[in-house]
Write a structure and sequence with these properties.
Elements: H1 21-32, E1 37-40, H2 47-58, E2 63-68, H3 80-97, H4 105-120, H5 127-140, E3 145-150, H6 159-173, E4 183-188, H7 225-239, H8 245-256, H9 260-274, H10 283-286, H11 289-301, H12 305-316, H13 318-330, H14 341-348, E5 352-355, E6 358-361, H15 364-375, H16 378-381, H17 384-392, E7 397-398, E8 401-402, H18 404-419, H19 424-443, E9 447-452, E10 460-467, E11 470-478, H20 482-499, E12 503-509, E13 518-524, E14 527-533
Parallel strand pairs: 1-4, 2-3, 3-4, 11-12, 12-14
Antiparallel strand pairs: 5-6, 7-8, 9-10, 10-11, 13-14
Helix pairs in contact: 3-4, 3-5, 4-5, 7-8, 9-11, 12-13, 13-14, 13-15, 17-18, 17-19
């Protein structure tokens, strides 16, 4: 049987995979048009797997030479001579392994001549000589030659690489007069058009990249609901679990927004870690909404290279940390501006996406992980509200069910005692943060939560809590008068309809001096709203 894979490249024969044929067709159309471009996506976004499949997809029409710059150590970029010799030998080795290798005598003679040049080369052999030889190969090949370089940004912090890009640029400009590559595809995390992010200060001559001839790469590499559905269909054919494929595909997509690693990781956790546990003894039990929620809980609690990279970037770029915090806790509506350094960094590393020209966190998994990151710093862990929740947590679970009303009651009491004398600014900036800080140790390890991004703004945030298969919706809002409050109740009722729930919860942060704090039940149209005021 196949397995779900989250380690390195995915192989169709042994791994359950999304069918990316449509994406490959779109990329091939760019190759057919002779475009040079970069596949610039965040880490673990399926770039290497896509390039592997693209190589097979193109082999009938092109001679594809696919390289990986991670195989070249730093010393190979010491100067133009060493790099050119190394690149030439690597190119020839890969070319000869290609399934589309041209065996005609005139082509093999060109290859042999290039090999002799490399074997006898001296210090004079550099990028000029390298590209003259590459041009000869392109001119002699029966099929147009496509060059693919993966992990290209692993070399992008030195001058030799910029000189290499400049040579590729010259090839592109003179392609109507001199034989050269049909297409060049570079793949990496960093935007090769904007290499200055990887250069040390004082290297002003390195700021502008010569890769300005690259076409825009607009292919959506995230997985759609339909693509996830097709992958689950293949799994279902093998195991016949009786799962509701469409519903599960939608649920996985809702958590991941189609981020390839996260999609595969949730499926792998369900198949190998959730399966066989006390709550999920059979495959049929696992492939349910409850099974997805359990896998999400495991995912959010694990250490992996993607999450380590995510939080590592927050420490590396303080401006990035500041803007992510503003989105999460203040509900700031920030317009997409590619010229803003922090936004550009967040977009490049996959933290955010642009929706209607407003930036949002890329997916629910990242969002919750980032919330947890900000809620578990040393400063926060020592906060009184967090310690109060730790002391109270055992009383909130009764017969396996979370008592959300009691959580609100205790929170109101603690919040009023600790922060009741704070001003309006405190309530706006920190009120919701303190509720999440209180909630986290209570559900940690058993349940999980996420924020409904469509409702998050400076005045309102909806928290969806999942605890052992039960869902709770808590609307957190700032008090803006009776009329606004009534609208909030109606919005919450609509949300309950969507989730098929009869009870909803509302936590209002009211800075009116005459407010009446406490918790009360409000019955509206056979629904109950448990309303707490602090």
């Amino acid at each position: 049987m196949k397995i779900f894979n989250t380690n390195a490249v995915c192989i169709p024969k042994i791994h359950y995979m999304v069918d990316i044929s449509d994406k490959l067709r779109q990329i091939k159309s760019m190759v057919d048009a002779g475009q040079y471009f970069t596949i610039n996506r965040a880490r673990q976004y399926g770039k290497t797997t896509t390039l592997r499949q693209l190589r097979e997809y193109l082999k009938e029409d092109y001679l594809v030479v696919s390289l990986d710059f991670q195989r070249l150590d730093t010393a190979k970029f010491q100067d133009g001579n060493i790099f050119s010799l190394t690149f030439g030998k690597y190119f020839l080795q890969t070319l000869k392994r290609s399934s589309s290798y041209d065996t005609r005598q005139e082509f093999t003679e060109v290859i042999d001549h290039f090999k002799d040049m490399l074997d006898t080369a001296n210090r004079d052999f550099s990028l000029y000589e390298l590209f003259e030889a590459l041009s000869s190969i392109c001119g002699a090949s029966l099929l147009p030659v496509v060059l693919i370089i993966d992990e290209v940004d692993s070399a992008s912090n030195n001058q030799v690489f910029l000189d290499f890009l400049a040579q590729l640029r010259n090839c592109y400009i003179e392609r109507d007069e001199i034989p050269t590559f049909q297409s060049v595809i570079l793949s990496g995390v960093y935007d090769i058009k904007n290499l200055k992010l990887k250069f040390v200060k004082g290297s002003e001559h390195k700021i502008n990249s010569p890769w300005n001839i690259a076409a825009d790469f607009l292919v959506d590499m995230s997985f759609s609901k339909q693509e996830i559905e097709e992958m689950l269909q293949e799994y279902e054919q093998d195991y016949k679990t009786g799962m509701d494929i469409r519903t599960l595909a939608e649920s996985i997509y809702d958590y991941t927004s189609g981020y390839p690693f996260l999609v595969s990781r949730i499926c792998k956790l369900m198949d190998e870690y959730v399966f066989g546990t006390e709550r999920f003894p059979s495959k049929k039990d696992v492939w349910t909404y409850e099974g997805v929620s359990e896998a999400v809980k495991l995912l959010l609690s694990e250490k992996n290279t993607l999450f380590e990279s995510l939080t590592g970037k927050l420490e590396d770029y303080p401006e990035l940390k500041k803007i992510i915090y503003a989105i999460l806790f203040h509900g700031d509506s920030i317009g997409y501006n590619p010229d803003d350094r922090a936004i550009d960094i967040a977009f490049m590393f996959g933290f955010i996406k642009s929706k209607n020209e407003i930036i949002t966190i890329a997916n629910r998994i990242f969002e919750t992980r980032l919330y947890n990151y900000f809620l578990t710093t040393d400063e926060v862990i020592g906060d009184y509200i967090y310690q109060s929740a730790l002391q109270d947590k055992n009383q909130f679970v009764q017969n396996g069910h979370l008592n959300m009303r009691m959580i609100l009651e205790k929170f109101v009491t603690h919040f009023h005692d600790l922060y009741g004398d704070k001003d309006e600014k405190f309530y706006e900036d920190d009120g919701r943060r303190y509720f999440l800080l209180y909630l986290r140790p209570i559900i940690n390890g058993t349940g999980n939560y996420y924020i409904e991004s469509q409702t998050r703004n400076r005045e309102r945030t909806d928290v969806i809590i999942d605890y052992l298969g039960e869902q709770f919706i808590v609307e957190l809002k700032l008090w803006r008068g009776d009329a606004y409050h009534t609208r909030g109740e109606k919005q919450l009722l609509n949300y309950l309809d969507h989730y098929h729930l009869d009870v909803g919860y509302m936590l209002s942060f009211n800075f009116n001096k005459n407010k009446k704090i406490g918790v009360q039940n409000i019955r509206i149209n056979n629904r109950i709203l448990v309303e707490a005021v602090v």
